[in-house]
Recover the amino acids of this structure.
């Protein structure tokens, strides 16, 4: 017979005793435990939220308000009191957008647009770049300014950009503003994409608010497939290889062999892809479960055949945002503007200074600086349409520099952006000399293979700068890899030593490079699985996530050959 | 099927999946990744440790943590005066043992009085001190206060040479290296660094090159001197300093022989060894002859146990040249991962090692540094590994038993859960393996170590002054316990 006691015992056995303290902690902000999609707490909260949501599907404002409240709670769990900042900035942005929409004179519209852009970037600038600027200033001019004790509110880079897209699109008359503040707040605070993107564009999202809420079986299939993939990518592959291998090597690269450094670089490439795209996929999947379709954010980027191709497949919502609002705004491929020339000039000037200041020790930095400037100049000097290419390349370079800086406040992100900007320009001139044959069948297999190989390795090379704690560490990793010699027995010993890590890396890459035919086959089979089967598959994935989370970290090992 | 709205089905799937998860959790194993046993062939770990662990698992019935631990913590430790100086009594819990560092402190005091004299420290460690981490900070703290230039004794090859900033060393790949880590019976005895090197490639030159680091006090190579051992055949070595080449011969007549490369300070040099195939080469010493010098003898994977294999005669030969005043033993990291909490085997082994040090460096003060905090994942949380405290206590026990000073690095860095804090802190002070410190953390640790040692020194000076004003006469020999090795504590060891 089932008694209350036996149920209670079963519960305690599986979940442990739940105290009032614990229950309280679920609802109170704790900086140590962020509310991520891959946590048990999120699953529990979401189940309750989703159950009520299903009943509210036919209402409108009630449903919007309900989701907003959950979103604000979600944000509070991630950033504490800073959810007020989100509210405040949304009130200001909403007000400005109304003024811009109603204003009749172009000049008035423009003034308010500039105000809103300054406010938004100012906010982002203070929280994200203040200390970086102070440190840079102190270093350059031996200043002694105190650092500010700034907390970086989670997702501020994402929702600021999303908010800006709304205002700029209203200014460009691409969309009409929402009918009221509630609808606007729903768009800005929508919790699936709030803290880590994708950066949803107002013109894609707003129309969906007004549609009748609908969720088909196919939508659910797509959503679950994305969530399952996302969970595995983020919590299994990315988390495990970073904590057990990649982080250690990048902490002290010189303590590891060349082969370990090389593998850590490949490892980081798959780690950052799985981390970022996995979280995006979960966000898209969760939004889809709520009946909202967000655009895809990653399309197997390492299959790119060129760096231009890469940026059409990597973090698509960011690259299109940058293209539409930054690149086009500073002139695109049409005209040169002050801003478009300013940042690249500053960068190359800084690079040259760095080269000159290091001449006493080595000529290599100066060589790199001059080489980069010559290379960049050649990309437009060799072109037939010199002026247009010059303008385009400068604007492109600016976009990539600032895009790099968007990822974090640090010189290594600028270098990362610059490398990509340079590569895009080089690829452009390359295409001018060797245009791809558009007609008929695509390029041959070997050509394609080498294009992918080279693009991939360039991207991995740039990730070293992105990942390394500072510029010096990045150089150490690169130097160490440069001393790699062919010693298969040593490699084998290392691979066996880090067996789990290397198996997961292999799994990640094989999955990434699987032909689309196979992934769609898998999807087809999943779609055909009965409801209960899907539940079991999803439950199994929960278990994998759980088992990985409790897996102890591998003790450190040092190899000697 | 209702194609219009699929909300409740969707909810059902997510909820049922949760139930399925509970089911899976009950029937599937807890761990998805097996804790793979690594083949130790290419992994750096000392062979004595592996042997001890194997023997221990045969003899031990289980991890018995005795009830007497609580009494042990409050155990009162009193000292017999040495040189008329007696530090206040301590409890086992807070044991530091400054009393046993008196001969070192006296030498420091003499140095403070006479800046032309010198004090030397040998710092033995494991991967925690790789690349001169921690040690370079202890060194710079001492040299900053008491003077002294140079990085001390440097080996020929080291797997961490590339990560060392205080001196840059590169070497040809054809050196034959024997390490006390995994060799039991070397052809020639190990040097003070636990290694012996041979240039026995007859076709290609065997070379080593040193370049001074950038930091203050170590930015020149002072009086570079080669240390080598006994052999039957003579050999030659070409020193290349700038554009000059000096050809010198190696005369391996004594147990320990030295050869000065040049007097004074140089920035860099290269040594090519010619026909030196049978001569045991140990390394180079760099010091300017006055102030404090600290040698870093770090070895990855070392538990400390191999020290017991030292050849005391050879060590005395080194000591005659280098004249040590303090030997630091900083180990423990490599014995944390063996699933045991009973460290009596390690305590026994290390007691042997410390006694070997005493035999090798008679009258020299010894300082034991305990393991630092180290975290392991328990369920979902990173916490202090349950082996840390038992190991630290065992280390304290052999420090006390062998009359050595003791630094409790675990409590010094913050005690329970401190490693998690050091890793998570921004900027981080320790690495993601939750074991090793990074540059920043090592600097902090170096300062903490120096501060504790210095606290004892300041206390010593006060006690010394009290003694002199009270007019009590220094006793030459202090009373010794019967259960420990007796050692003469002379204030100056000649």
């Amino acid at each position: 017979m089932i008694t209350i006691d036996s149920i209670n015992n079963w519960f305690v056995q599986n979940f442990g005793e739940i105290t009032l303290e614990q229950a309280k902690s679920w609802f109170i902000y704790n900086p140590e435990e962020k509310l991520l999609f891959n946590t048990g707490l999120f699953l529990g909260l979401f189940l309750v939220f989703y159950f009520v949501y299903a009943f509210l599907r036919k209402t409108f404002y009630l449903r919007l308000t309900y989701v907003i409240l959950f979103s604000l709670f979600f944000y509070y769990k991630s950033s504490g009191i800073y959810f007020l900042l989100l509210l405040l900035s949304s009130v200001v942005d909403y007000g400005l957008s109304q003024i811009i929409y109603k204003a009749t004179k172009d000049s008035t519209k423009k003034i308010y647009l500039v105000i809103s852009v300054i406010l938004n970037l100012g906010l982002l600038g203070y929280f994200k770049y203040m200390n970086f600027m102070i440190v840079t200033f102190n270093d350059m001019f031996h200043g002694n300014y105190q650092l500010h004790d700034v907390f970086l509110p989670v997702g501020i880079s994402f929702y600021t950009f999303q908010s800006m897209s709304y205002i700029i699109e209203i200014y460009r008359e691409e969309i009409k503003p929402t009918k009221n503040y509630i609808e606007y707040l729903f768009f800005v605070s929508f919790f699936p994409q709030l803290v880590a993107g994708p950066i949803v564009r107002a013109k894609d999202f707003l129309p969906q608010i007004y549609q009748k809420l609908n969720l088909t079986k196919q939508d659910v299939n797509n959503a679950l497939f994305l969530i399952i993939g996302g969970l595995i990518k983020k919590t299994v592959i990315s988390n495990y290889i970073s904590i057990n291998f990649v982080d250690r090597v990048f902490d002290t690269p010189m303590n590891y062999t060349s082969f370990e450094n090389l593998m850590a670089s490949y490892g980081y490439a798959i780690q950052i892809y799985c981390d970022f795209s996995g979280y995006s996929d979960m966000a898209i999947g969760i939004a889809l479960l709520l009946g909202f379709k967000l655009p895809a954010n990653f399309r197997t980027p390492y299959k790119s055949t060129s760096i231009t191709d890469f940026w059409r497949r990597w973090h698509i919502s960011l690259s299109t945002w940058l293209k539409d609002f930054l690149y086009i705004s500073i002139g695109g491929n049409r005209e040169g503007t002050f801003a478009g020339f300013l940042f690249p000039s500053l960068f190359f000037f800084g690079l040259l200074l760095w080269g000159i200041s290091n001449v006493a020790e080595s000529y290599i930095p100066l060589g790199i600086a001059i080489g980069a400037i010559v290379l960049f100049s050649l990309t437009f000097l060799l072109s037939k349409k010199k002026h247009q290419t010059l303008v385009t390349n400068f604007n492109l370079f600016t976009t990539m520099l600032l895009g790099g800086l968007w990822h974090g406040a640090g010189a290594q992100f600028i270098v990362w952006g610059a490398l990509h900007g340079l590569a895009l320009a080089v690829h452009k001139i390359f295409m001018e000399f060797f245009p791809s044959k558009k007609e008929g069948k695509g390029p041959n297999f070997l050509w394609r293979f080498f294009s992918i190989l080279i693009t991939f390795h360039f991207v991995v090379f740039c990730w070293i700068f992105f990942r390394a704690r500072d510029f010096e560490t990045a150089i150490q990793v690169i130097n160490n890899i440069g001393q790699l010699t062919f010693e298969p027995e040593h490699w084998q010993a290392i691979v066996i030593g880090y067996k789990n890590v290397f198996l997961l890396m292999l799994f990640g890459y094989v999955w990434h490079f699987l032909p689309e035919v196979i992934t769609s086959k898998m999807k087809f089979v999943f779609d055909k699985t009965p409801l209960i089967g899907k539940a079991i598959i999803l439950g199994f994935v929960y278990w994998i996530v759980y088992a990985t989370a409790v897996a102890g970290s591998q003790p450190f090992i040092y190899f000697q050959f | 099927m209702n194609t219009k709205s699929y909300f409740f089905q969707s909810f059902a799937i997510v909820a049922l999946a949760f139930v399925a998860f509970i089911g899976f959790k009950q029937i599937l194993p807890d761990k998805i990744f097996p804790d793979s046993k690594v083949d130790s062939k290419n992994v750096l770990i000392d062979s004595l440790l592996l042997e001890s662990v194997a023997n221990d698992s045969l003899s031990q019935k289980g991890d018995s943590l005795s009830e007497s631990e609580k009494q042990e913590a409050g155990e009162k430790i009193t000292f017999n005066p040495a040189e008329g100086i007696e530090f206040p009594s301590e409890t086992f819990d807070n044991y530091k043992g400054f009393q046993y560092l008196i001969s070192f402190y006296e030498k420091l005091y003499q140095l403070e009085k006479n800046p032309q004299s010198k004090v030397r420290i040998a710092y033995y460690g494991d991967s925690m001190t790789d690349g001169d981490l921690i040690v370079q900070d202890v060194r710079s703290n001492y040299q900053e206060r008491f003077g002294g230039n140079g990085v001390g004794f440097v080996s020929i090859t080291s797997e961490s040479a590339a990560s060392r900033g205080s001196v840059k060393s590169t070497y040809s790949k054809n050196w034959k290296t024997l390490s006390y880590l995994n060799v039991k019976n070397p052809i020639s005895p190990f040097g003070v660094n636990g290694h012996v090197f041979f240039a026995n490639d007859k076709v290609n030159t065997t070379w080593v090159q040193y370049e001074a680091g950038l930091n203050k006090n170590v930015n020149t190579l002072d009086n570079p001197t080669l240390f080598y051992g006994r052999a039957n055949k003579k050999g030659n070595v070409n020193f290349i300093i700038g554009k000059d080449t000096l050809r010198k011969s190696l005369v391996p007549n004594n147990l320990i022989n030295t050869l000065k490369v040049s007097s004074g300070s140089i920035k860099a040099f290269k040594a090519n060894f010619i026909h030196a195939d049978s001569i045991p080469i140990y390394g180079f010493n760099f010091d300017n002859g006055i102030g404090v010098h600290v040698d870093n003898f770090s070895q990855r994977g070392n538990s400390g146990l191999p020290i017991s294999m030292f050849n005391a005669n050879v060590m005395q030969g080194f000591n005659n040249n280098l004249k040590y005043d303090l030997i630091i033993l900083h180990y423990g990291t490599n014995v944390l991962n063996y699933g045991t909490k009973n460290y009596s085997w390690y305590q026994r082994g290390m007691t042997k090692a410390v006694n070997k040090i005493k035999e090798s460096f008679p009258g020299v003060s010894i300082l034991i540094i305990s393991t630092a905090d180290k975290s392991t994942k328990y369920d979902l949380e990173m916490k202090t590994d349950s082996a840390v405290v038992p190991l630290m206590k065992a280390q304290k026990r052999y420090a006390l038993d062998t009359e050595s000073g003791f630094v409790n690095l675990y409590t010094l860095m913050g005690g329970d859960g401190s490693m998690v804090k050091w890793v998570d802190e921004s900027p981080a002070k320790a690495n993601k393996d939750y074991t090793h410190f990074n540059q920043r953390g090592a600097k902090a640790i170096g300062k903490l170590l120096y501060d504790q040692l210095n606290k004892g020194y300041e206390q010593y000076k006060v006690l010394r002054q009290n003694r002199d004003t009270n007019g009590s006469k220094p006793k030459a020999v202090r009373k010794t316990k019967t259960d420990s090795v007796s050692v003469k504590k002379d204030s100056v060891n000649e």
